[in-house]
Amino acid sequence: MLDRMLRVDHAGEYGANRIYAGQMAVLGRTSTGPLIQEMWDQEKHHLSKFNELLAENRVRPTALLPLWNIAGFLLGASSALLGKEGAMACTVAVEESISEHYNSQIRALMERDPERYTELLQIIKEFRDDELEHHDTGLEHDAEKIPGYWLIKNAIQLGCKAAIYVSQRV
Length: 170
Description:
Its cofactor is Fe cation. Component of a multi-subunit COQ enzyme complex, composed of at least COQ3, COQ4, COQ5, COQ6, COQ7 and COQ9. Interacts with ADCK4 and COQ6. Interacts with COQ9. There is one protein chain. The protein is an all-alpha fold. Helices cover 82% and strands 0% of the residues. The protein has helices at residues 2-27, 33-56, 65-81, 84-112, 118-140, 149-169.
């Protein structure tokens, strides 16, 4: 269970980093750039921590990192090509998916052995709170104003669910 959790969380944070990299490639020199950079900096911290946890626990990352490298960047860049609202809609969709995923992991660890997983629970809760903050930031910065918001959000979340499923296993 721990291997799967660490593997998928690392993959998710890796993907999030690539999404923000794609958004910065398009919007980095606009007024939205600093906002995206701030969220990206938090994601860089998350990824660094999961890199440490993988090494400490001798867990291999998902074999799909090369795919998530390309897919994440393309998702970020393509959403940003739709403007600030597109980038923020992507942020809302992804961060909502990740925070729900983290909540399910918190429940599983609490049911399993909360004392054994105290440190991991603390990390996941902190990162979940960061993801919820990013989600709210996206909403505050006009995510819902993009035409087709519901469709964009649901399509991205379907992709997130698929990525979570395969990253746990491969």
